[in-house]
Amino acid sequence: MKFSTNGLIIREHHVGESDRLVTVLTRDRGLVRAFVSGARNIKGKKQAATQLLSYGNFYFVKGKDAYRITEAECLDVFFGLRDDLAKLTLAQYFCELCGVVVPEQDDAGAYLRVMLNCLKFLETDRLPIHQLKAVAEFALLTLSGYMPDTDGCHACGCEDGNFYFDPIDGVLQCETHRSPHGIPVSIGVVRAMHHITHSTIDKIFSFTLNNDGLKRLSAVSEAFVLAQLERNFTTLDFYRGLTEDIRN
Which residues partner with 62 through β-bridges? Predict the structure, then answer.
């Protein structure tokens, strides 16, 4: 069995002296894990195309026990991310998140589009980093079936007043029906959440918030990810440490 498809390398692991085991977020087959023979050889043709964060066209062959990548054409490597440790770490967090939520052996074109857009915007500084982080978190979870309810208070339906977001139940709450886990959110943050989770992929980045609003949006999206997936992410922990150091 063999096939070719476009994909993004979201994980790499060295095997032996020169081989590499990679996880590829593919357009039409979800996550595919494959071995790359000789990938660590600096003269190898597949060196650049099969490193972390490389986007390309890959030819897969199914062996007895696993897939192998026999050919790889590099389309983008997002070199700009490697010049900024915080950006690179955030990109790796997006990859780690994809490794948890993206299905295997299923169409994943929407996930791939979200990732490529986020990486390109992150590389080129076209959008604030808090905005990109929130879009990636909310969009990837929404694609995975974890869409939050942002249509007014989940309990009474009211659409005015002070709102709170419960990341565990994934719902908005008013002052009266606020749970102990509720995080206060402005109407601007609520609208941004609704926009990200209900828009087509080509429009999910098209909104504006002031810096404080973007920080709160990012905090809410992060809390939602951790509560829904019930796990931590080592890359996210490292990113937090980096940004704390920068702020201090």
Answer: 67
The boundaries of the domain holding residue 167 are: 80-247
Cβ neighbours of 158 (radius 10 Å): 15
Nearest of 128, 93, 107 to residue 208 by alpha carbon = 128
How far the first Cα of the chain sits from its last, in Å, is 54
Q: Residue 69: beta bridge partners?
A: 60
For the segment 77-110, what is each residue's pLDDT rounded down to a tens digit? 999 999 999 999 999 999 999 999 999 889 999 9
Please name the residue ranges forming H helices in the chain.
85-101, 109-124, 129-143, 187-198, 211-229, 234-247
181 burial via Cβ count (<10 Å: 0-12, 13-18, 19+): middle
Query: Is the pTM here over 0.90, yes or no?
Result: yes
Name the region of 53 (left: φ>0; alpha: ψ -120 to 50; beta: rest): left
Strand partners, 33: 23
Q: Which residues does 179 contact at the CB level (< 8 Å), separation at least 6?
A: 164, 166, 168, 169, 173
Q: Which two tokens stand for residue 193?
A: 């959440």
Q: Can you tell me which residue has the tokens 């199914």?
A: 62
d(CA 86, CA 214): 17
Instruction: Give the domain-ending residue among 77, 110, 139.
Output: 77
Q: Which of 77, 106, 126 is the last residue of a domain?
A: 77
- Give the C-alpha separation, 150 to 29, whole Å: 31
Q: Which amino acid is at 204?
A: I
How many whole angstroms separate alpha carbon 185 and alpha carbon 138?
15
Q: What angle do CA 181, 183, 189 make, to 5 degrees?
A: 150
